[in-house]
Amino acid sequence: MIRKITFGALWLGFIIYAFFFAPPDQPDTFDLIKDLSTGQWQGINPLIIALFNIMGIWPMIYSCLVFIDGRAQKMPAWPFASISFGVGAFALLPYLALREPNQKFPGSKNAFLKILDSRLTGIALTVATVILIAYGVGQGNWGNFVQQWQTSRFIHVMSLDFCLLCLLFPALLGDDIARRDIKNPQLFWLIGLIPLFGPLIYLCIRPPLQEAADKIIQSQQQSAIN
Prior knowledge:
Keywords: Membrane, Transmembrane, Transmembrane helix. By secondary structure, this protein is mainly α. It is about 75% helix and about 0% strand. It has 13 helices and no strands. It has helices at about 1-20, 30-40, 45-70, 80-85, 90-100, 110-115, 120-140, 140-150, 155-170, 170-180, 185-190, 195-205, 210-225. Helix 8 (about 140-150) crosses helix 9. It is globular, with a radius of gyration of 19 Å.
């Protein structure tokens, strides 16, 4: 119950801050979002371009855990994960508040879950993130970014959303580690707690999720050996 109240309060607090305390909307916000979404990046600070695109990678990172976690939840995970591509933590916080601890994976993986569970997916997301970070940091204007963070609600809230997604990842990490029977959980926890690149590295090196049928066969083989 404490966990549910905490995530619920965080969600409500984030909404209140975003709409009542963040800097005001700028007249060109809609045009900026449209240009960022359609790749018309001329004249836009590369730091903002990188951040905007990384905010599309974060939901993919979470999807690699949420869809698997949601298999054993009473509520479907896909609405929260899907909406998070547009509003980030605003959509994921309600899921974290409503979900129950779950360290088992029932049934089998379909084609979609196999993609999310693949290390190649983690590698692809990591490569894309490295490229974006290198582009943003290498060519971006930090002074301009700080100014826009202080004056634009869109940039301000998007930046806070990024930070919040970094902080929330461990809320799903523990169950995912247990679900995979990882023998050295301390190492994976250490990696997962590193902002952004920790979750990406975790997706690259975590062992594949065993399906229920595979666990039964493995258990029978172990019993036969003993």
